[in-house]
Amino acid sequence: MPFLDHDGIxxxxxxxxxxxxxxxxxxxxxxSRSWPxxxxxxxxxxxxxxxxxxxxxxxxxxxxxxxxxxxxxxAALIRHLGLTRVNLLGHSMGGMVAxxxxxxxxxxVERLLLAATAARNPVRNNLLFQDWADLYDAGCDRAVWFRSxxxxxxxxxxxxxxxxxxxTLEHLLYAMTREEAGTxxxxxxxxxxxxxxxxxxxxxxxxxxxxxxxxxxxxxxxLGVRRVMQRAVWQKQSSGKEIVHVGDVIAAMFExxxxxxxxxxxxxxxxxxxxxxxxxxxxxxxxxxxxxxxDREE
Length: 298
Prior knowledge:
The protein starts with a strand and ends with a strand. It contains 13 helices and 10 strands. The radius of gyration is 21 Å and the shape is globular. The protein has 3 domains: 3-115, Rossmann fold (3-Layer(aba) Sandwich); 123-153; 164-295, Double Clp-N motif (Orthogonal Bundle), CATH 1.10.1780. It has a 6-stranded mixed beta sheet. Strands 7-8 form a two-stranded parallel ribbon. A two-stranded antiparallel ribbon has the order 9-10. It is an alpha/beta fold.
């Protein structure tokens, strides 16, 4: 994996595509895995540089963190790659970092693209984020903690619409424990599939509302599900393959490190490497069976 040693820490980065350099900076608590929905299109026109900001993802976690330090990290990475100027795209907090990088290192920025961001972070937000961090460190129930974030992300209309039913990663994993292709992968990687299914059912009972059987609901994929599916398709496309297997989706789940789905998989001793090894050796190399995969256009 490519890392840059800078300022006493390690910064993880990736490069994709070809063309003029475009450095992508994700928002608060997000990392280089936030971009799968736009990677294929952008990679056709740009050399994409994806960076895990300090404190998140695969970059160093235990270190000083500030907007100015992250801006200097960007400048160090640009110089490390031997680039003179780059296009810089920042989303949310990443936009603040991009602005600060352009202010501190204008000679390195060709164009600045800002998405859903602001020039400064108000005191109110800083207090809110500090409270969230304190609650997490104090051992707040994880389901309650994550649910509290939704009130700041979605509008009032979202909560009032009782027709909406969220499809989570845990639902996706549960479905895999109940069909042959999924159980084959999970069993081969060392899971006790029956126990895993029971764990997920207990999780649903304790942390999710049960709807009447005759209710009519629109199913909405959570962002985690969308990222996993997009990541699985992107990885297959990058390797020149047409079929996305169940195993590819399970492997992509491990990028969602804070999810309960990954927690349950890890409790059975399953790692992403285990799944990737199964994908390499467990599926037939020739004549892939479409019935065991997912159509990439679905």
